[in-house]
Each structure stands twice: as C-alpha cells, then as structure tokens.
C-alpha cells in the first residue's frame, strides 16, 4: 500500500472516530437539554441552546471533513466500507459513557467489522496517478461510466415519478434505491472534487477548470436528493431497518461505480479481489449483527429511553438528514422488533 493509501486510511479511520463520538456527545447534549425543556424526540428544539450538542455537531463536521479528504488520497472501495467503524466507536462509547450495555452479539459484530476492515485495508488496490481534474473528467466520460450514469439517471427518474407515488410509503427499497443510486454518483463527484482541492493546495490550481465546478454541482444535487428521500424513508420506516439496508445498497453501488470509473481492481489478482469481497461481506455481517442487537435493546428498554446509535451508514447525506435529532418517539419505541420490508396499506 502506497503513501497516499496510508493517508486515506488514516483519514477514514479518524473520520469514523470523530463521527462515532459525535453521536454520543450529541446524545449527552440532547439528554441535558431534554431535562430542562421539551425533548427533541417529541418536537422540542431546546437542544439548540445546549453547548454540548453543538460540540457534537462540530465533532461530526470534523469527521466529515476528514472523510471528504480521505477520498482524495485513497480509492472509494477502500474508504467507503471503513465508515462502518463509526458504528463500533458509537457502540463502545455508549457502553462506557452512557452505560448502555453492549450484548454478546454486538461484540461479535464489532469484531467482524474490524476483521473485515483489516482485510480491505491489506488488499486495497492502489490509487491511479491523477495530475489534473481533467484526468478525472476523462474517466467520467468514458463509455462504460456514461452507461452507468445513464442507467442510474433512468432508474432514479423511474423510481421518483412512477414507483414513489404508488409504492414509496409501503416498500422501503423504493426510497433507499433512490438514495443509494444517487449516493454512488455523489461519492464519485466528492472524490473528483477532493482530488481537485488536493492538487490546488499542492500548487496546481484546479479552480480554473470548469470541470471542478461541475463536479461540485453534481455533489450538491446528489446530496440534496439523498437527504430528501432518506428523510422520507426514516419518517416512514423504522431506523433499525433503514440503516443496514441503506448501508448495504449504498456501499455496494459505490464500489461498483468506483470500479467502473477508476478501474480500481484492474491491476489486482483474482485472489486479492476475492479477499477484498470477503472483507466487505464480513463488514456487512458485523453491521447487521450490531443493528440487530441495537433494535432488540431499544425494544426491551423503557418507553422513555432513546437509542444511542443506529449504526449509521457512512454517508454524509444520512448524517445530515438525522442531524442528531432523528430520535424515536414514544409511539415508535412501543413497536415490536419484527419489522417487514414493506408496510401494508389498506388504501
């Protein structure tokens, strides 16, 4: 692994620590604000006057900046799966700081995430040399990636204008499909923008090229769309179901998009690719175990308890949509832990 990959891994891991810790800090702030005012879970906004909650927000922003920078140094197939480490940080800090017990399956899930992350880091592909944002633009305009973009655009439009009005409020995959498809394009654009800023800081000004601003525009469009439909998913379905499914779909599509655009695995052997895929599957298994443990814990606790972490996927849009205040209401917490992937609509 070259020096750029080392930097990317260090930034991605530090990002997970900051983001994982931010949810605990914000939770502490929310509890403190709720003790003296209306809780956020039932519509209160007293947390906005709580310094501890703002400290958590600043911590999250630092983590997002580190995550953004990581894409400038390392391939997306390495950076994106490492976002699962934030779940481990949240679970560990929740256990020690908030005295919220981590069960045996949760510990197993943490170990699986760590083992899978190590596999991915050890066998990660080398980042190709890019000396200008124009190089990224050439990769983005190759026929294979243009075909992928076309498929994504058509699929998203079909989902938004045909499936959302008919099945969006009953089938969770409709909203999450839109979020994941747009998310894969947002990561590619974030990576391009990160490379442009990195080269500019190094003395090779990339702000003179229109492609830099086009990538920034795509990032804005994709993130806004993700936030919109992820908020709908979180408002309609239980977070314990939304988060793991979104993580799987988003990460899988991001790896596919990165493999097509940057040809990450072009110089790797079959055994290295299989090892990386096994690491990815191991992380997915650990993530689902952590979510399962969290859902069972939330349902076995009192009606006034608030889940600390929801195993948040490693995406900026998801964390922006939650903003530390997407907490379960007492009515939601009274639901059982058996939640289908669709909801029956009598109408």
TrEMBL record:
Topology within the bilayer: Multi-pass membrane protein
UniProt main location, coarse: membrane
Lineage top rank: taxon: Eukaryota
Pfam families assigned to the protein according to its UniProt record, in alphabetical order: Mg_trans_NIPA
Presence of the UniProt keyword Ion transport in the record: yes
Family note: Belongs to the NIPA (TC 2.A.7) family.
Assembly description: Homodimer.
Protein name as it appears in the record: Probable magnesium transporter
Annotated source species: Sphagnum troendelagicum
Species classification: Eukaryota, Viridiplantae, Streptophyta, Embryophyta, Bryophyta
């Amino acid at each position: 692994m070259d020096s750029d990959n080392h930097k990317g891994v260090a930034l991605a891991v530090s990002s997970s620590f900051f983001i994982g810790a931010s949810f605990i800090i914000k939770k502490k702030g929310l509890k403190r604000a709720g003790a003296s005012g209306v809780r956020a879970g039932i519509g209160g906004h007293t947390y906005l006057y709580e310094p501890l909650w703002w400290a958590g927000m600043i911590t999250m922003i630092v983590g997002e900046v580190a995550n953004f920078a990581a894409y400038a140094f390392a391939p997306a197939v390495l950076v994106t799966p490492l976002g699962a480490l934030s779940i481990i940080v949240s679970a560990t800090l929740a256990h020690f700081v908030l005295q919220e017990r981590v069960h045996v399956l949760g510990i197993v899930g943490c170990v699986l995430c760590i083992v899978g992350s190590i596999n991915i880091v050890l066998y990660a592909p080398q980042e190709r040399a890019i000396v200008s944002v124009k190089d990224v633009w050439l990769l983005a305009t190759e026929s294979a990636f243009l075909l992928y973009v076309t498929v994504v655009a058509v699929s998203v439009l079909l989902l938004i204008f045909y499936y959302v009005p008919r099945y969006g409020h009953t089938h969770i995959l409709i909203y999450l499909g839109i979020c994941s498809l747009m998310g894969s394009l947002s990561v590619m654009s974030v990576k391009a923008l990160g490379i442009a800023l990195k080269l500019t800081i190094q003395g090779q000004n990339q702000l003179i090229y229109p492609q830099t601003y086009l990538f920034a525009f795509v990032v804005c469009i994709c993130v806004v769309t993700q936030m919109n439909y992820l908020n709908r998913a979180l408002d309609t379905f239980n977070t314990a179901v939304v988060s793991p499914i979104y993580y799987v779909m988003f990460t899988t599509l991001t790896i596919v998009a990165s493999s097509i655009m940057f040809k990450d695995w072009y110089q790797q052997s079959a055994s290295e690719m299989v090892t990386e895929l096994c690491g990815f599957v191991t992380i997915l298994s650990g993530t689902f175990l952590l979510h399962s443990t969290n859902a069972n814990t939330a349902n076995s606790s009192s009606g006034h308890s608030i889940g600390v972490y929801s195993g948040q996927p490693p995406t900026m849009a998801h964390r922006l949509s939650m903003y530390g205040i997407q907490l379960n209401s007492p009515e939601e917490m009274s639901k059982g832990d058996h939640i289908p992937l669709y909801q029956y609509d009598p109408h």
